[in-house]
């Protein structure tokens, strides 16, 4: 299924950065990307000019965005420490682990790249959250979601922080 990268959490990013397992990285302007597909184990960028770029998802370490303007603070804010999602890429259960340093209201949700909240993992006081949250690739209604990129966002104390999830389906 194709993902059109127009909006991420309601705001337009300028660049998408792909970090590979060999410690190299590549950066692409979203103005040049028409869509992103995930087919089997391949992530494919379809460029405006008609050419394609592809990577096997096993060599993609992580992906992030520049200039979101959303208050997303990479790599971590002062209120959330050690925020990781793993395994990533994943074809099944994704673990979400972090430490919140105070007892603020906390929301942990998964968003598609169009900015729609697809799954809420936790809402409540940070002191009451489980040590490990898990996302099973389903939306809030129990429907299986398509393979693609998703954002796991933590909102706490007026701040937001996110990590990209590459979900390759079940």
In summary, what is this structure?
The chain is globular, with a radius of gyration of 16 Å.
Question: Which descriptor suits the 3D outline?
Answer: globular
State mean pLDDT (0 to 100 scale).
78
Overall strand count: 14
Radius of gyration: 16 Å
**CATH architecture title of the largest domain:** Sandwich
Main sheet overview: 4 strands, antiparallel
Individual helix count: 0
In spatial order, strands of the major sheet run 1-4-5-6
Distance between the termini: 14 Å
Order of helices and strands: EEEEEEEEEEEEEE
Poorly predicted parts: 1-12, 67-77
Structural class: mainly beta
- Strand fraction: over 45%
Helix and strand topology:
Layout lengths: L1 E2 L11 E6 L4 E5 L3 E7 L2 E6 L4 E5 L3 E7 L13 E7 L7 E7 L4 E8 L4 E9 L7 E3 L12 E9 L2 E9 L3
Antiparallel strand pairs: 1-4, 2-3, 2-7, 4-5, 5-6, 8-9, 9-12, 10-11, 10-13, 13-14
Describe the structure in your own words:
The protein is built from no helices and 14 strands. By secondary structure, the chain is an all-beta fold.
Core attributes:
single chain, mainly beta, disordered N terminus, 170 residues, 0% helix, globular, 53% strand, Immunoglobulin-like, SH3 type barrels, 4-stranded antiparallel sheet
